Amino acid sequence: MKAVVIYNPGDSEQLKYQDVETPVVKEGWSLVKIKGFGINRSEIFTRQGFSPSVQFPRILGIECVGVIEESTDSERLPKDQTVVSIMGEMGRDFDGSYAQYALLPNEQIYPIDTNLSWETLATIPETYYTAFGSMKNLKIEHNDKVLVRGATSGVGVAFLNLIKAKYKDVTVSGSTRDMSKKSLLIEVGFDEVIEDKENELDTSSEYDKVLELVGTVTIKDSFKHLKEGGILCDTGILGGKWYLEEFDPIFDI
């Protein structure tokens, strides 16, 4: 089969498109014919060598949509069944979805019925799963005032879509470092767009809930805009920095 293999950490030039052996089905696993997948920030970090547990060579890819080619659970996962799979160390401990086929544990393969095209379906699994988990952790309530820090990201837009679908009376603001994208953010449904100027929001507003997608480089500033008793969910690291330095819980929170 064709696959994209990485042998050494680095930039995208390290991704090698080549022929490899198609995986052989083993007990408790199924072979999925890949029809589409997203490219996730965590995969980029892994490619760059920032995932110490990942051993190379490796076929990356932590999510996929496709159909069952061969299974050891033919009752739940019959041949040609449309499926979704996400995470579970896929593309990390074992080869993932950057390939024509992926051998995956049955327990992390989810059969679905859908009329969506493969292109559309491939945009949903990891992005919306992440957004949904964030929404649950934020404990959204009616009339909440919500901020999405890093609104132009895929997860930011997915989160907005979920909020607006369930809570018509929730106000959602989004931040961006590039105000040329303001009209686009308004078009997709954000109620307000705030400029992020060198990791500080250009507003004095406070919010009941904050979805932090930029991460450690902006989280202290996000705390400044959180109402007393509010919730901040730190989901992303779009800022490219893993650790929060010089953090004083009393003053920063």
Explain this structure.
The chain is an alpha/beta fold. Helix content is 22%, strand content 29%. The strands form 3 sheets. A 6-stranded mixed sheet has the order 11-10-9-8-12-13. Strand 9, helix 5 and strand 10 form a beta-alpha-beta unit. The longest helix has 14 residues.
Write the SSE topology:
Blueprint: E1 2-6, E2 15-19, E3 29-36, H1 41-47, E4 63-71, E5 82-86, E6 101-105, E7 109-111, H2 118-121, H3 125-138, E8 145-149, H4 154-166, E9 171-176, H5 182-188, E10 192-197, E11 200-201, E12 207-212, H6 219-224, E13 226-234, H7 249-252
Parallel strand pairs: 8-9, 8-12, 9-10, 12-13
Antiparallel strand pairs: 1-2, 3-4, 3-6, 4-5, 5-7, 10-11
Overall spatial form? globular
Order of helices and strands: EEEHEEEEHHEHEHEEEHEH
Radius of gyration, whole Å? 20 Å
Largest sheet: 6 strands, mixed
If you average the pLDDT, what whole number results? 96
Residue stretches low in confidence (pLDDT < 50, at least 5 long) are none
How many beta-strand segments? 13
Strand content: 25-35%
What is the helical fraction, as a range of percent? 10-25%
Structural class: alpha/beta
Arrangement of strands in the largest sheet? 11-10-9-8-12-13
Helices, by number, come to 7
Cα end-to-end separation: 52 Å
